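User: I've been going back and forth on whether these two constructs are worth ordering. Before I decide, could you fold them both?

Assistant: Sure. I'll take them in the order you sent them. The first construct and its structure tokens:
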Amino acid sequence: MVIRLLQTKDCVTTEFGFDKKTESGSSIKIPANSSGSKEAEVEPDFTEPIPNVTVSVGRDVKLACVVENLGSYRIAWIHTDRYTLLTLQNRVITRNPRFSITHNGHRTWTLHIREVEERDSGEYMCQINTSPMKSQSGFISVVVPPRIDEGNTSTDLEVKENEEVTLKCVATGSPEPTITWRREDSLPISIGSKKVPSVVGSNLSILKVNRHHIGAYLCIASNGVQPSVSKRIVLGVAFQPTIAVPNQVVGAAIGSDVTLDCNLESHPKSVAYWIREKDVYIVISNTKYNTSETPSGPYKTHMKLQIRNLQPDDLGTYRCSAKNSLGFADGTIKLYEIPAPVTSPQPYLPDTLQPKSEKLWNSYSHNVVSKPNEKDISTDVIDDTHDVVHPDIIRLLLQKITRLFLKKVHTTTRRRLFRCHEHLWL
């Protein structure tokens, strides 16, 4: 559509001519000054520029046009990008009810747009019908928060191990959103031989997928306009079960409880069970056996078999087995008997001869146990049924023997001296 300004003696006409695609045209005549003479009148001019505005979709926005000495001239607002006349002086021309015009009664004409749409972006011209025409423009940039295009974005997906897989995420918004891929569990993403925390781009491609890629992935779209949005996509990788046995040979004493362990990996989930090879039957939980399965990851399971009160008939080979739609796996554990642990008896000691700390022997005031008196000890405390004699007993017995010996020696010496003295007196 083309805008042409035509001036005649009594009026200025803004004429709109449509291109071939339109079906009608229109023209609006803007009256000139009432005296019919513009030569004696000071021409109007703009005193402030129209600011550029950035606004989020759905918000309200306004543009102000400030003109000095307008006089009998007229002001029009035009959406240049769409070739649309919006307002003329104080009158709204467009049929869009979201547009309005206000005048402060002095020199400012303000264009208002309610609930801005993305198509409202572009150049807006404030025009004065002088000859030649005077105009100035401001720009409105309508920004749109990102939005995930569900129709063109991948949903939850499952593939077989070693196949190629591509996850796709499409988002709209203004400016154009950036797509970032992350794992929901915050683990790095394995791309070939590399592990990266995130991948930028609409497509996340993995050439040779394996079980370590199993998990939920987040497609995050952002463009600087809040809020950012994301979509959760679960990637499943199907493979036949594998079993690892931490201890293939386990020993236990008769009468004890023993636990056998296996580590299972499978997706989809397997049917897991234990088999006693001696009787070739599936072990079920009862008063003798207890079987359990504890998940330890998206595709990992810890299998346990507990055997209570082990008896000779329980010894032998046990198998942990698993089966899913892609295959079968098992592991073997051999259970054998080991001697029961023997506990050595503690040597007998009288209460008064229990071991004491160094502080007890130093006679601190807070000690409640006193040093044994030799009178409390006799040779009867040595029990022939024990191989260990407490060192305190030996020490006290040696002291007693030494004193008896010295006493005897002292008595003999006194007698000899008495006899010697008696002889001298005689």
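The second construct, handled the same way:
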Amino acid sequence: MGLTHMYRGLLFSSSVKNMCTYSVMKQLRILANSSGSNKFLLKFKSCDFSFQRSIHLNHQNEKLAVNTEKKSEPKSGLNKNPETIISNINSKKELNLIKRDNSKQKGIYSEIVGSFPEGIQMAFAYGSGAFQQENSPDVNKNVLDFILVVDMPRRWHRLNLDKHPHHYSFLKRFGPHTIARVQERYGAGVYFNTLVPMQGRVIKYGVISTARLITDLLDWESLYISGRLHKPVSLIVEPLNEQLLTALKVNLRSAFHAALLLLPDMFTEVQLYSTIAGLSYAGDFRMSIAEDRNKVSNIVKPNLQLFRRMYGPIIMEEEHLTWWQPEGQLEQALTFHSRHHHLKCLPGQVLYGLLMQKYQV
């Protein structure tokens, strides 16, 4: 299994960053032509952008400052209900809590994640193995995907190599230092072990550092993990790190405001959620070659209530948007002020890309 396992792991680890960067750039080209963007971007031409370690977001007179340099090792706990979906992730309860009732899956996620070494700060399941999609009604037949977030990747890989050496390709012969270096230096900062049989399912799990995840959530550095978190996920280990909790909230809001810039004045809820879900797929070459071209629709329609629970509170507080809930219709004001508002809520990396593309700064 060595070479094939190695190839698949590195394919996921090293190709996703470029693939998702293309997605971001495609969105930039569209956003750059949005009404009102020129006047707004001119104001930012002299700004000093510093994205890799910290970002300051001003949203409706609320400043959120996140410093990923702070060294802490907060505890985290295994969620007693593994069907909790990411949403209510801060003390202010600005996002909602979603639970998915599926007796067949109950307990499987917790058992799988519980078999890994300690040190997991956050873990979630995602994709067609965890959520029903229109073209795949039986989730049990699909590969079950996990993301594990850890503070110290090298230490965690060392423990996992001792416990599950068969999960790794022949890279295990070079030790945890090499594995962690491959994870951090190539691709989107995620190291995947693929086609792993556990608890009667075939799983794929990726490992990412807490600091790298926070950066991607805030800046959309690769839009790989942050893009997955635009959609419903099954949260297994709940994060307690305040910086990570804040970044998760900001990521949802960024996706919401980006989607509004891409939508017309009148649109439906399905169009809104499809635009959000499609942000991370727009530049994915697999969508035009191997993936189902209706993938976004297949994700949104069976999980419409989950999307509504995720984004409903954000929609309700958006002053530039009117929502007719019974009809599932929305209307936004296409004014300079509304565009200015949405643009300033985009991730710093996106704003920087807009500047580089339009003004060669």
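Notes on the second construct follow. The mean pLDDT is 76. Residues 82 and 107 are 7 Å apart (CA to CA).
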